[in-house]
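Table S2 (text version). Query chain:
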Amino acid sequence: MSRVFVTGSTDGLGLAAARALMDDGHEVVLHARSRDRASAVAHLKSRALAVVIGDLSSDAETRSIADHVNEIGRMNAIIHNAGIYLERSRGETAEGHAKILAVNTLAPYLLTALIERPDRLVYLSSGMHQSGGGSIDDIDWKQRSWNASQAYSESKLHVATLAAAVARHWPEVLSNAVDPGWVPTKMGGVGAPDNLQMGHQTQTWLATSDDEAAKVSGAYWYHRQRRQPAAGVTDPAYQDRLMDKLADMTGVRLFKA
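Corresponding structure-token output:
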């Protein structure tokens, strides 16, 4: 039995993953953006180990989430599932960041740095990361004209790169990125063509399975098959530049210099 924290687990892939893990007998810590969103999983509260509440677009609330998870106890695995998609505008968080950057990139970075190190880490990326090669200098979209699709693609390149950087720096942790496919969730839409079940099974498999095939690190997966990510993901120089940028933006350094 494993203890697993799943971010963004009130609907979609996160909820499907959480349910599957609980059905398999694992202890699951759920995450909701707000108390209102937590009501959507009230029926699962008795089966969950805990429900952690906090908005990942907020630096302060993200840090509070990390504190709460650490109070619960060490996780065996964390699935960084939460994410937002096509934002109509850059938006601006309390810290002045683009909302999509805050939720999709800064939050998983902070949670990785601040939550006690688990045995396994799984980060949800996207096939769209392949076109995410934007400038690290303007990662926060303060100079460029807003492009929602490009901003999303870049955020998913960032999180896949984070997964690879963790695998490189923390060899004792199994860290992988997953493309769940274009699946029929609220984010993907009812017409999405990919298999919803396979969309969440890959991350639960990587988080808990004793299969030797799942005990790898630094890989990029699609439906339990390894795929080749964008070149920057596995480039140590790109990883280092991105990690330095995120450390500067958050004031938290994930890896020792």
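Notes on Table S2: Helices lie at 12-23, 35-38, 59-72, 99-114, 148-169, 196-208, 236-250. The chain has seven helices and eight strands.
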